[in-house]
């Protein structure tokens, strides 16, 4: 068996990826598929942390567009990520993987509070750690959470699993058949071209801390393992191309 290229990874999942084709709520089939893919990676000896979004339940941006206070809308979004994290934890543990949810907003009945050193200890013991509730602050996305936590735990790479595309394109491939898929990009190119990979705060954080990002489709079984083994899938974004 090939040796993993990365020893410690952060898997970033959008909430929509967990909803599947229905686009809202949770798809049990998708969550179990993700759990099985994560198990494949854990079985290789790789340390896995997960950051999951909440867009399948609530998006803070929509709430603010409705006239809701932005901070309140964002806090609601953070709570949505906790629900997704608990659902993913349940599926992972049913697959035989020890899992801990750490929340940036304290709710001791359902999750540990986020403590960096404790998270690293869990990872060293080969437990999967799910970081819930974003950064705990409004105005920051779960993309930024993934970049921040990756820097804090000294992850080798961020794996960004998408449900509707298999990489980064010059335009939306669904509406523009001439859209070009990139094999490699720099974070500066992502920011300058306004590519919808991750928000500029997250991109800058990755660039400053030299954390590579691999964007790929989560819908194809085995893709997380392929990415960890260093196979060429999706698009890789680095500090320098």
What is the secondary structure topology, with strand pairs?
Layout: E1 8-13, H1 15-19, H2 28-42, E2 47-52, H3 60-65, H4 70-94, E3 99-103, E4 112-113, H5 116-124, E5 128-132, H6 142-152, E6 157-162, E7 168-169, E8 181-182, E9 184-186, H7 187-193, H8 200-208, E10 213-217, H9 223-228, E11 235-238
Parallel strand pairs: 1-2, 1-6, 2-5, 3-4, 3-5, 6-10, 9-11
Antiparallel strand pairs: 7-8, 10-11
Q: What are the main properties of this structure?
A:
19% strand, alpha/beta, 241 residues, nine-stranded mixed β-sheet, Carbamate kinase, globular, two-stranded antiparallel ribbon
Condensed summary:
By secondary structure, this protein is an alpha/beta fold. It has a single domain (8-238), classed as Carbamate kinase (3-Layer(aba) Sandwich), CATH 3.40.1160.
* Average pLDDT, all residues: 94
CATH-wise, what's the superfamily? Answer: Acetylglutamate kinase-like
Distance between the termini: 29 Å
Query: How many strands appear in the DSSP assignment?
Result: 11
Helix content: 25-40%
Task: Catalogue the unreliable spans.
Answer: none
| CATH top level class name | Alpha Beta
Order of helices and strands: EHHEHHEEHEHEEEEHHEHE
The CATH topology corresponds to Carbamate kinase
Quick one: biggest sheet? 9 strands, mixed
**CA-based shape:** globular
Looking across the biggest beta sheet, what order are the strands in? Answer: 4-3-5-2-1-6-10-11-9
Strand content: 15-25%
Structure classification: alpha/beta
Radius of gyration (CA) equals: 17 Å
Q: What is the annotated CATH architecture?
A: 3-Layer(aba) Sandwich
Overall tally of domains: 1
Number of helices: 9
